[in-house]
Specification:
Length: about 350
Amino acid sequence: MRRGVVTAGALTVDRVKRVDGWPAQDGLATIEDESHEGGASSFNMAVDLRRLDAPFPVATVGLLGEDADASLIRGALAADGIDVSGIRTTREAPTSYTDVISDRVTGRRTFFHRQGCNAIATPDDYDVSASSARWLHMGMPGVHRTMDAPWQGDANGWVTVLRRARAAGIRTNVELVSLAPARIAAVARPLLPHLDALVVNDVEIGAVAGLATVRDGATDAAACLRAARSVLEAGPMDLVAVHFPRGAVAVTRDGTVASQPSVAVPEDAVAGANGAGDAFAAGMLIALHEGWPLRRGLVLAHAAAAASLRALTTIGSIEPWPACLALAERWGWRDPLPL
């Protein structure tokens, strides 16, 4: 009878700036556009699900400071119909924020992150054992000082939260952040025995599996599939999905394999890539929650990611999922992936 998704993990304010080019050190770039919005995986997933018109309730738990940034985040979540009753506040540290610099020329993004109160959050701040949700989505291990450290006999605090959730009957998914490969592996591998699904990008799956998935700047789709199979065997997961600019691959516990090229987004439609990975994961989570076939889930995930590229911010251009699918069909799909 469980229904819905609860998100936990990083809650930040994204201070997004688009510049006319990345400067050399001591150089100058011109800011062409900017915005302040809620961000990070927990916020983005919750809002993406609601704006995709997911047919189930969405809630968020986490820790915020007592400041204007906290009011911005809490207000934005509530405005999209997300249950924020599980969000705690603290006076011990400010709300986390990230300066996101988007290069108009290359489309690449650079992040300057302040952990703020995320650094002092503990598993108790993310406890969802009393939730009636079917799925827990956690995000951004590796940038939470306390959660990343051992906790009461567990390898880290993320393990504690995931273990408690699964014991309560909640299915679990985690989203990583692209840190140095050794750092990704250190924080992510202990989580694998406590996950029901893993949706990550090409760099992250390579780091977790200890395999090379990107060579000379190009993603090797076949290597991503091998890495996904390897990671699947490291825990009870029913699904491992890997996304990258040209497409995505996925493998399930019963041996089903699916691949899907990405949407052929016109260059002049791209405002920024910030949040595309979160949008992809949101599409996959809708499919998982509703029991869709694997390939249909990949199609929706890519369609949501494509829609998100039209905005500089993480959530600004997300639409209900039928509109995202229609947009993807209008733009068309890239060539099939070589596997």
